[in-house]
Amino acid sequence: MNPVVHFEMPYEDKNRMASFYQNAFGWKTNMLGPEMGNYVVAMTCEMDEADKFPKKPGMINGGFYARTESDQCPSFVIAVDDIKEAMKKVTDAGGTLFGGANNTGEPDEIPGVGLYVSFKDTEGNRASLLQPKGM
User: Fold this and answer.
1) Which tens digit of pLDDT belongs to each residue from 45-77?
2) Among 19, 79, 91, 103, which residue is least crowded by beta carbons within 10 Å?
């Protein structure tokens, strides 16, 4: 089985969003710059000593991206061992790859994280695949 390892939600105002989740739930955010698409990483739980993984099994962190006309819904990220194999399984099962490098459906390299690509399932829901660095 491939686990859900991350969630993603859109924002309209990243400062307002960060303030809301900080005040409502105590989450910490790390606002990335334009070179990373103005993505905002959200830490929702206590992290290990290396500040890489949640201390408690089953907990996940997430992130927020700028809302666009075509990207308005929350989604989740599924960890896979081999992103190319997982992409083939997604399309064989009736899903559609999108996003990624030049919006070609090819995976992007997220520095220090791994390979990432988004897809829509057969019901039109957005989700993503992540082959973590080192796998």
Assistant:
1) 988 887 777 888 889 999 999 998 877 788 899
2) 103
- Report yes or no: 80 and 86 within 8 Å, Cβ to Cβ: yes
Q: What is the Rg, in whole angstroms, of the alpha carbon atoms belonging to the chain?
A: 15
Q: Can you list the domains of the chain with their CATH numbers?
A: 4-66 (3.10.180.10), 80-132 (3.10.180.10)
- Reported for 26-30, long-range contacts at CB under 8 A and 24+ positions apart, including other chains, are 29/64
Displacement of CA 70 from its chain's centroid (Å): 16
**The tokens of 31 are what?**
């606002």
- Residue 64: Cβ within 10 Å count: 22
d(CA 82, CA 40): 26
